[in-house]
Amino acid sequence: MKMIDLRTENDFLGKLDVPRDAYWGIHTQRAITNFHISNTRVNPSLIRALAQVKRACCLANAETGCLSSEKAGAIEKACIEISSGLLADQFPVDVLQGGAGTSTNMNLNEVIANRAIELLGGRKGDYHLIHPLEDVNLHQSTNDVYPTAIKVAGTLALRELAQIIAHLQGAFQEKEKEFAAIVKLGRTELQEAVPITLGAEFSAFAEAFSRDRWRTFKCEERLRVVNLGGTAVGTGLTAPRDYIFSVVEKLREVTGLGLSRGENIMGETANADSYVEVSGILKAHAVNLIKMANDLRLMNLLGEIRLPQLQAGSSIMPGKVNPVLAEAAIQTGIKVIANDGIVTETAARGTLQINEFLPLLAQALLESLELLINIDGLLTQHVLGITANKEKCDEYFNASPMIITALLPAIGYEKATQLITEFSAGNEKNMRRFLEEKLGLELIDTIFSPYQLTALGYKDKK
User: Fold this and answer.
1) CA angle, 62 then 64 then 70, to 5°
2) What is the 3-state secondary structure (H, E, C) of the chain?
3) Where do you find CATH 1.10.275.10 in the chain?
4) Tell me: the pLDDT tens digits for 227-257?
């Protein structure tokens, strides 16, 4: 059995061994032991965002003379590396952790410190060179850097999601144009209803995602206000005023985001309602995804469209192909809706000056963003591969008595009822052909044209 080389570190609870090669330290090591729960690590996007926050704090401390240029330079380089995705394996803490995110904050402090120590030529654990708390965490608290990092990570993901939703909307708009001339039956309550076009049906999907794109783009504003500089409860206790006024400006420079310090930092520290608002927007998008994906499954079942074939659908039925991506989209939507419940519950359970449950809130919110980004990207290509089965659409359309509804302005309700009764009593199975014989080809072609069926109302006889 291979022996692990160890180093010993100290905190006020005593001594503890840490793997010598690990960039983390004693606080992280305790958290690894204490929170062996889900086997799920903290979302990497939150780690990268927290490194950006730490970099901004470092720059503000350097500018105000609280950190030497040598220490600040090494800390900043370590933060840049981590925010770019390096050292990702050095953040092993379980996502289900107590302490309002303290374990994750300490994990960052220790990894940044030990990497900065290396950059200065020292060995991991030589904290007289760079100290995780006295230098990396200087003038900070978990209670201001952690929620700020959630907002940074959330904002960056929202921007990406808004762009991807726009692509999904565009895919449906492309199909709207492609299918504009294909007449088909509409359906309500899973029953035949009035005639529409396949293009119009796809336009409804595009319109829903247009709303999602706009809402997602705008809700970035809900995360713009941060409490960085507020330290433990939002009063800025133990932090110099110059630092407090500088640190958010530095964060804007580091992230390129339009962030601002809250007017009431205690309120920003104590309350998590802004995350709930954003999560609600994500839930709305999830609802549209579920509805759309289920509709595509039904249309595929009816044979009106053909979804791209992605993989074999059965281990026992040769040739069976299932609408697997639509099914995956529905499951993704359900997960996002469930995560919204988690965000709501965790935000509500904060007490007094902070919210202790931000780790679970962050995981749920950032996971939802990641899931939606991924599924929307897959769906965009999938939608572009959808083809129409015009023959099947015509078959359903021509056979349905419901198409007579479109003729009401021309023949009236009583005449339409008589014709349906006559059609039902006879041997003719093609309703369109029956109507052509009774009312003339010219009228039927005019009324059942794609343009006429999707025009907003009809022109008054006058």
Assistant:
1) 25
2) CCCCCEEEEEECCEEEEEECCCCCCHHHHHHHHHCCCCCCECCHHHHHHHHHHHHHHHHHHHHCCCCCHHHHHHHHHHHHHHHCCCCHHHCCCECCCCCCCHHHHHHHHHHHHHHHHHHCCCCCCCCCCCCHHHHHCCCCCHHHHHHHHHHHHHHHHHHHHHHHHHHHHHHHHHHHHHCCCCEEEEEECCEEEEEEEHHHHHHHHHHHHHHHHHHHHHHHHHHCEECCCCCCCCCCCCCCHHHHHHHHHHHHHHHCCCCEECCCHHHHHHCCHHHHHHHHHHHHHHHHHHHHHHHHHHHHHHCCEECCCCCCCCCCCCCCCCCHHHHHHHHHHHHHHHHHHHHHHHHHCCECCECCCHHHHHHHHHHHHHHHHHHHHHHHHHHHCCEECHHHHHHHHHHCHHHHHHHHHHHHHHHHHHHHHHHHHCCCCCHHHHHHHHHCHHHHHHHCCHHHHHCCCCCCCC
3) 21-138
4) 999 999 999 999 999 999 999 999 999 999 9
**CATH code 1.10.8.60 for 144-309+321-390:** no
**How much is the pLDDT for 445?**
87
Is the pTM above the cut of 0.70? Answer: yes
The hierarchical CATH code for the domain 21-138 is: 1.10.275.10
Residues near 33 by Cβ (< 8 Å), separated by ≥ 6?
A: none
**Interstrand relation of 260-261 and 225-226 (parallel, antiparallel or unpaired):** parallel
In the chain, where does the domain assigned CATH 1.20.200.10 lie? 144-309+321-390
Looking at residue 462, its pLDDT comes to: 45
pLDDT interval class at 460 (50, 70, 90): low
Angle at 151 between CA 216 and CA 346, to 5 degrees: 90
Q: Which of 84, 314, 315, 449 is catalytic?
A: 314
Catalytic status, residue 246: no
